[in-house]
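Handover notes (outgoing to incoming on-call)

Open items:
1. KIF21A/B second helical domain-containing protein: sequence verified, structure written out, both below. Nothing else pending on this one.
2. Nothing else urgent.
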Amino acid sequence: QREELTRRRDKISRKRERLLAEEPEVEKDVQSLNEELESLLANIDYINDSISDCQANIMQMEEAK
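KIF21A/B second helical domain-containing protein structure tokens:
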């Protein structure tokens, strides 16, 4: 899931850059893309935090053995 979100983020970033390069007046479209990017980044951060928590729990369980 993290990889999929990262790919989506990269795709949207490229689209945003292309729009800005082609037509500087497309600010409304770019704002929408920025909001979607922020959402994707928040999801990626959440997933990374969850992975870190799981890894910490695994380490604690291994140490308890």
